[in-house]
Predict the 3D structure of the following.
Amino acid sequence: MTGALVAAAALLSPEASAAPADTAPGVPGSVSATTLAEGERLELLPGRGDAKPGFRIVSRDGSPAGRYAYALSGDELTVLPTGRAGRTTPTTTALGPRSGRVAGRQGPTAGESVATERPATARRSGTTGAAEFPVTFSVANADQNATPIMRVWDSTTWQPYEVETDQFALRGTASLPPGSYFALTVYGGSDRPDYLLAKSFKVVAAGVKVAFDQAGAKETGIRTDDASAARASASVSASLPNGQSIGYVGGGRGPIFVTPFIASGSALHIHEVHGRKGATPQRPSPVRYDLSHTFERAVPADPVADVRQADLAESELTVRGGGQYRSGFLETSAHTPFAGAHLSTPVPAAGHLTEYVTPGRTFSRIAGYGTQTFELPDRTLQKGPNRGETVGRAPYAPTGGKKYVASRLHDELTLYGPFSVSDSDGAFGRDSGAVQSYRLSAHQETIAEVAGKPAQSPVKLELPPGQDTYELARTVSRNGDTPFSRLSDKMVSEWSFTSGTTTTRTDLALPDVTFRVGGLGLRNETGPTPPRVFATVNAPDGAPRLSRLEFSIDGGTWTPLPVEGRSPTAEGEVPVTQNTRYVSLRVTGSDERTGSTVRQTVSRAFAGPAGVALPSRAVGETAVSGVSVNDNRPVVLDGLAPGSSAMFPVTFTATDPVGIAGGDFLLYQGAYSRPDAVLAGSSAVCRPTDATTSVCSGHVSLAPHEELGDNALAGVWKVGVTARANEGGGVVDLQEAGAFRMMRKSVLSPADAAPEPVSPGGDLTVTSRLTASDWTDDGYAAYADQPVTLQFRQTGTTAWSDVRTVTSGADGSVTTTLKAWKDGDWRWSFAANSAATAVSSAADYVDVV
């Protein structure tokens, strides 16, 4: 994803990793997250069937996550960053139990505590009781220094043994008893290939030196017959007969090399995602190849699998937008004995994506934009055309059909509804920035309240003993002032129910609501015909009834739509005027079997007509000033090598009489509603300077080749800023709070004047070449059609005088011929424009004799 754009949501906080999961069929188990030493987030995703969980790594600022090596030992996962400067630290986390299931499988019931399985870790030195000998590991013919992950197994029993590795050195040590062994190591360097090397050896009665051979490794991967496609991301891993794995996550576009090996019960798993060459987050590829291949038992001498597009499954994914954002992401993981890493690539949003997928292989999938994610169902496609899908269809709301857990044990009420922004097609949705609050009352008297909790976390409330009738209100709020999540900014669910003290956990079976709106466009906006709203009250074990369906254009005035009889469903047409910005929806219903009632309100359920501009917004006395990007200097991007990045700060001052709660910023080019490019959308850290004022700041990390990829994006960029006051008071959302220049670095080759020397009055030709940093390819590219001025400085003087201006040619060359009269220096000078820096060439002295 781009610069500081939030790439994906944190699904559950670490402390909620054993959170209760809904017992209803079709509900994914909980997702746990661990912060890595480098600040990125490791998310463990539920296993499918008997498979272990998969995982993905999300950067802290939304920029592309760095490359990681990983190793799975039993139920213990170790990840290590590769190719980074400074100290790199591995992180080890327990995968935990496999009781949380998806796709109709049972998960832990609400409120259950879940014991974490002890991982089957590698055996340490001195634990076998037999004599052990020192074994040292190294890598021969290596062209880099890196911190490796190394693992070794007894090749008869597949008992793992620990290997202690060095920082920034391809070395390791272990103590092993006599036997036959199989070892693997993975490592990689910045802008260098990744390696997965194998080595078999024996320990007899003395220490052994074991050398992996980098020169013997062969490039692995999957090739297609589509010449316009190129690898966008890859994950390669080796699995062992004991179920353990070692490999790479998100290897990027660079090559991965492996050692050919044969080991019974082992396999090499390759997962690659390809897209159009030159695609970037600003220009997402409209085509995505999701390819998986496994070499069983033997890794051949040429470990590359060839596939034809005609032999793949074909489908179309439509990604609907939730605001003005112009690209989203799609993450997939191919099911193997270890589900493995999720590979993420930018996709058009709102837009259509043509997918070519390895047939017969099951993939887990996550799609989204900004902080919002949708969990698509696992998918196995057959060769040839397949039915397409849509994700992100509004309204975004808690899903219907007992997807919300509300249960009582004794006098404790457990509430858990992580899927608060699911789409109307039923894809489970979360927003990592959403917060929830609860109010529990009886007879108009408040019993308990909580506020400011992450929307995906469980909440427990204490009830009075005995039986009574209660009112429960849950409010989920998320920032509706960022371009990618303007819809469903507040969702309020209100229930009434009767409950008494229990001795076993009892589901309250609260009714809920499902919405669907027909006639919306790709950005969930209304079209030329009035949208039609469909609503359903769900009470699967009861007798649901929908009694009232309403809509609101201004969020305050509610207009009812016709509701007939005692049906659980209702539908109606919503008249939308041309200047409507949003339409909110509300449904009231009940379960006539239990007497429970529900009223659910979704603010900004869908957007008004596509042509309606969304102006800047201000509520209360919140104000923003002093917006600065890169300390008010142009951001100049040199001809950095692919994968390199530049970092620069964004700061602004926010004020409100009650103080500032937080802020966000967005960097974009073009029109706000339909930008040409969006570089960053990130939360700022707001530090108070006094009771009313805060200075908010954030940093943008930008790899121009990967995230811009287009020299036409150089020029003026704009800054959108949002600030929020404490206690939910004021908010200001400025679409053009500032501007800055994103510039290519210009270079003029040294001036060359000829002939030298020259006679007075003779012809003198002066040449040079103008180039600028290339954001598409490495280095510098010709800068054509630019005015470049020839300048002269007479011997004995210091001032330069303009002589004439010429236009650079298609190859960037500049040349002119003139009469020579005096001794002096000649040079070329290019004045800065909005897209490129000023530069003058080195001078050439000419003697006129």
